[in-house]
Amino acid sequence: MAGHETHYTLPRAKFDKPVKLLIVVAPYYKDIADNLVAGAAAEIEAAGGTFEIVEVPGALEVPTAIAIADRSSNFDGYVALGCVIRGETTHYDTVCNDSSRAIQLMGLQGLCIGNGILTVENRKQAEVRADTADQNKGGGAAAAALHLIALTRKWGAQTKGIGFKAPAGAYQVAGTDNGSTSA
Description:
Blueprint: E1 20-25, H1 30-46, E2 50-55, H2 61-72, E3 77-85, H3 91-108, E4 113-120, H4 123-130, H5 137-156, E5 171-172, E6 181-182
Parallel strand pairs: 1-2, 1-3, 3-4
Antiparallel strand pairs: 5-6
């Protein structure tokens, strides 16, 4: 069974300053969502972080809540949690694809998001993936967000040197030899 193959897991991210995440969960399948949240919370706490939880009606609202929080709050990263089980209509495809695409686009814009929205064929698959003693996809999503936060902090502090961009608005004036920058 593919779900029980051995795979490599990165060591837990470490931080020298506090880290705060927002867990955004769609509790449509409440028991599954509760397990996903438990896994995410345990991973964040094990890394020394703190978190808040907000519930939204469904998986399509998860990315919107993250975008609102990013504009209005001060979280270092986000954990997207929920479960979409295939039904009889194409609504499954819409919800899976659109929620995933929105999360990916925000990630490409620099948000640190771990995507733990399960997309499964049946309830049993969801239960196994959400179980903290089995696949623990909630913990995995939190770990992904934490690793992205660590990368952001590592590279965000760099302001010069090969391969690193200067802060927005900072540039060197051509023809000067005093090393000054203008904004």
